[in-house]
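Q: What would this chain look like folded?
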Amino acid sequence: MTKSEELKSDIEFVSGQFMTEPLPSDWNSMKASDLYAYLESVSTSQYKDVSGERILRDIKASAVKLRAYFTLLRALETTEVKS
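A: My prediction, written as structure tokens:
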């Protein structure tokens, strides 16, 4: 899996924490304004008054942090096994 595919997959996974509906299957090719409008319309109550642009930025940041966490975990597990 390429880094781009990993990020897309992580964003789709993490987005459930921000939205009441899943991302559309074509979310990655939608016009930015349409995606922002969609995110605003299906955001959880915590993000009710937040712009779609901010919601997407938070989703991406969470996805990157999640990937970094799993990468670190994998590295620690590998180190423990070798010890």
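The chain is about 65% helix and 0% strand.
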